[in-house]
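#dry-run=false #mode=assembly
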Amino acid sequence: MKFADLGAQFQAYEEEIRLEMDKVLSSSLFINGPQVEELEDALSTYSGAKHSIACSSGTDALLLGLMAKDVQPGDEIIVPAFTFIATASMVAFYKAIPVFVDVDPVTFNINPLKIEQAITAKTKGIIAVSLYGQCPDMDRINAIASAHNLWVMEDAAQSFGAGYKGRMSCTLSEIATTSFFPAKPLGCYGDGGAVFTENDEIAAKLKVLRNHGQVKRYHHQVIGINGRMDTIQAAVLKVKLAHFNDEVSLRNQAAERYSSMLKDIAEMPVIAKENTSTWAQYTVRVSRRDEVRQKLADKGIPTAVHYPVPLCRQEAFAYLGDASEYPVSEALADSVLSLPMHAFITEEEQVRVVNSLKEALDE
Ligand SMILES: Cc1ncc(COP(=O)(O)O)c(C=O)c1O
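#status=ok
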């Protein structure tokens, strides 16, 4: 059994993918080939975002977003304490200060009630992560931000394709970023990402920043990065995007099956009523997590822990000297367990996962 079965997905679209990759190989347009812009148009059509700017990874998408907002050393940026490190490390990389906020115990997303307490005169923005595939309460976060004159960025690395109050993830704040890391719900065959915005000026800035700050060949207006997406990755994503709606439906069906089978067995994920999820992860909470995980591994069931250490406890952030408490993030880090989840998982496989989990918990 696979945790995320990329092989099954490749088999399903192999002919189309090889054809599109071949077109890139024959054209030799490996950088800035036409497929990149075609993908950007398709991403906008899918998500409803006015501007989609393809880039080299979800991490670079965050960095480009921070550069576009002209973040300065010493600026404070609010981030959830429980997420993948890139959300906060790009802030720190830019010599700004990540300020952690604890997460909601039900959705595991940044807790809007705690954001206001973290705002100081130095705060410039909030990065809200859509963890495991569901959005945080973005209307509430945007309202807090606008009351304090802050910008909001959605780190939608796990939620491209998710819904919030009938709108799509990646259109819910001034800037949004996503990742096309291979195991993401929409993944390429290497690294890839995108930045989304409704703002024409920011979109123009992002395109320049993504290509060394270049406005004309070898004329550099600002300091930028090489944040371009490879044409081959755009070609792969174009094919996968055409099948993405079906995959999101299949992931939702798989999640429903898990939830119906796991009642009374483990603490299941809760999707807020205003949300639809892409189920980037199907993550339960169990006690004695590491022991249970080992027992599942012994039975051939692959699982993952997203994430075993909250950001507030990461060695890399020790220099911040942050002595605050983040009880929800700490408790989640000790108890979350992600089960195999992908569009091609079968009911039989899910029954095996659930039975093995039940046995492991009962032992
Ligand atoms: C919440 C979050 N932010 C950022 C990233 C970084 O994306 P990438 O791996 O494409 O750089 C990830 C990827 O795992 C993520 O889950």
